[in-house]
Design a protein that fits this description.
Length: 95
């Protein structure tokens, strides 16, 4: 009877250690999931800020201001515009 009790005690200890190990691993995974959720939220906020920044930088009035003031570019006058007419056979992009 003593050997059976000793064997059952060893099995019980092994099962208890298995439960403790599983719970520890589960807690670590829950912490990792929460960290990833937090990171995903930070990335969403950053994405929103980047979209707002992109829309601000690409506003037509801002682009026109940079073109006129920094690059010294201007709209061509009507006599400066040349139209090129393509033949019907070349309109498809043939070489």
């Amino acid at each position: 009877m003593t050997q059976t009790n000793f064997l059952l005690l060893l099995v019980l200890i092994a099962c208890a250690l298995g439960v403790v190990t599983s719970q520890h691993r589960a807690r670590k995974l829950v912490v990792a999931i929460q960290q990833e959720k937090d990171r995903a939220q930070q990335l969403e906020v950053e994405w929103g800020q980047l979209r707002l920044e992109h829309s601000t930088w690409s506003m037509p009035a801002r682009v026109e201001n940079i073109v006129a003031n920094q690059l010294q570019m201007q709209q061509p006058r009507t006599p400066q515009i040349q139209y090129i007419h393509l033949n019907a056979g070349m309109a498809g992009g043939g070489l």
